[in-house]
């Protein structure tokens, strides 16, 4: 009887997992065979998936690392999240109207509202609570609430995506945003996710590395990064990943997306730099996956490589996706930036700033953060 009960439980569990994977819209869409045939003509598409410019592993797999990984899950003593929920600066929708002066608002992690030449561009809008296909599969964001509710955001000229991981492309956020966005700019293959989620295909433009496009006079380009992609079982590297360049009338902005350090940063700098400002991935790092996520010191070096006048660390301060203290990324990046003499911008979550403030000294807010009492 016990064996029958165990067998029944296993069958039900397997069935539940199958149904979850099969019917959960979070996993996104599938690329068409016609698209795959086009991708196969590219140098960076091999054996049914995209590849990096240089050899890259997502995680160094060996017995020692696997043991260490599981051990840290239960014994890690780092303060991986704030003791209390953080309270962001609040953003008024009336402030996001026709700002001709370049303005940037960090929503936490890698979500950025870029206001450039009067256009409103939302980058990597992960505005949900957990970066996972189900709330039970991840940890909630550090911040009690968003700087502004999605429903209160004004019409957006564009949404820009760097790659399809859950902490950058969120199904729930797209559902709430899709009818108030003029254009979607995405890497090759990510258009399939958006179309599966009900976004009008005529509003989507998918780009390959080094492709260039335009949004209301703003020149944009999609450039390489050193990373990987995938949202579910069997779709590893089915979509492309990368970084973005925005060139307005006066300011040139770089957004790194995710990725490890490599020679592509200097190539981007030579082709499109120098930049007035760069937002560079800094956080969720570990020596075991150092080829797909930079160490903070490398993040600052990457900013210097692209020729940025000032840099801002992103991809930190919002989610637990690694084993380091939640404040380590900004501490280490700040130290390295001071060593190299590069201005580093460290706004509070929800704090808007303009290019006129790049030489200002931002307070070390993470040392005494505003928390929910």
From TrEMBL:
Keywords, ordered alphabetically: Membrane, Transmembrane, Transmembrane helix
InterPro entries: Metallo-B-lactamas, NAPE-PLD, RibonucZ/Hydroxyglut_hydro
Alphabetized Gene3D superfamilies for the sequence: Ribonuclease Z/Hydroxyacylglutathione hydrolase-like
Membrane-crossing segments per the record: 6-23
Domain (Metallo-beta-lactamase): residue spans on this chain: 120-316
PANTHER family: N-ACYL-PHOSPHATIDYLETHANOLAMINE-HYDROLYZING PHOSPHOLIPASE D
Protein name: MBL fold metallo-hydrolase
């Amino acid at each position: 009887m016990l064996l029958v009960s165990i067998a029944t439980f296993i069958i039900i569990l397997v069935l539940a997992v199958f149904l979850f994977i099969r019917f959960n819209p979070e996993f996104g869409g599938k690329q068409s065979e016609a698209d795959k045939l086009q991708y196969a003509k590219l140098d960076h598409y091999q054996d049914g998936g995209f590849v990096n410019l240089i050899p890259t592993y997502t995680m160094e797999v060996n017995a020692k690392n696997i043991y260490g990984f599981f051990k840290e899950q239960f014994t890690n003593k780092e303060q991986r999240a704030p003791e209390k929920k953080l309270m962001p600066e609040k953003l008024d929708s009336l402030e996001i109207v026709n700002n001709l002066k370049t303005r940037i608002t960090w929503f936490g992690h890698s979500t950025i509202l870029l206001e450039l030449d009067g256009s409103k561009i939302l980058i990597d809008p992960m505005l949900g609570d957990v970066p996972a296909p189900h709330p039970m599969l991840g940890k909630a964001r550090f911040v009690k609430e968003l700087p502004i509710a999605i429903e209160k955001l004004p019409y957006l000229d564009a949404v820009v995506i760097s790659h399809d991981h859950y902490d950058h492309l969120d199904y729930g956020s797209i559902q709430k945003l899709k009818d108030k966005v003029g254009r979607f700019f995405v890497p090759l293959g990510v258009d399939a996710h958006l179309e599966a989620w009900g976004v009008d295909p005529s509003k989507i433009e998918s780009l390959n590395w080094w492709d260039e496009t335009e949004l209301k006079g703003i020149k944009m380009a999609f450039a390489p990064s050193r990373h990987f992609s995938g949202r579910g079982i069997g779709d590893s590297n089915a979509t492309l990943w990368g970084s973005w360049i925005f060139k307005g009338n006066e300011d040139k902005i770089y957004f790194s997306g995710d990725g490890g350090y490599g020679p592509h940063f200097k190539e981007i700098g030579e082709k499109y730099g120098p930049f007035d400002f760069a937002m560079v991935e800094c956080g969720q790092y570990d020596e075991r996956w150092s080829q797909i996520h930079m160490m903070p010191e490398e993040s600052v070096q990457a900013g210097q490589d692209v020729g940025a006048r000032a840099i801002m660390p992103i991809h930190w301060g919002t989610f637990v996706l690694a084993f380091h203290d939640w404040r380590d990324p900004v501490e280490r990046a700040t130290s390295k930036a001071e060593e190299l003499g590069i201005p580093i911008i460290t706004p509070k979550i929800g704090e808007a700033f303009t290019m006129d403030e790049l030489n200002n000294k931002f307070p070390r807010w993470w040392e005494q953060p505003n928390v929910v009492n």
